[in-house]
Structure prediction request, 134 residues.
Amino acid sequence: MLHIPERPRLCKRIASALRSGGACYIEDLCERSPFIPDDLRNLRNVVFGITVTSIDRYVEDFRSAGFSDVSATDLTDDWAPYAAERLKTWRENHAAYASTHGEEAYAALEMFYEVIDRLYDSSSLGGVRLVARL
Prediction:
């Protein structure tokens, strides 16, 4: 959902698609603290994170859309180490990937993994699980 520019509108569409008592399960990126300008630029231009907000704002978007029961769990403590390990493993496998797909493709994905890891490391990026019920 982080790529959707009008998340509140999407939440309403999800609510309208579900039957009474239906539920929606989402895991997504969230903002844990404000992004510094360079990090926000990387979030937008490298990760394409258009709608990355606080967990509270995410919950409010679902409540405003008509969901009566919304729970959120912060997954950052699980996701941040995974992102760091993914970057490390990516770099270890540089030659294998680049020999098949080229240096340009390798560099683009390395930049993506590096930005995600840096944003977690700065404590501005987090992960969230939301369960919203009508």
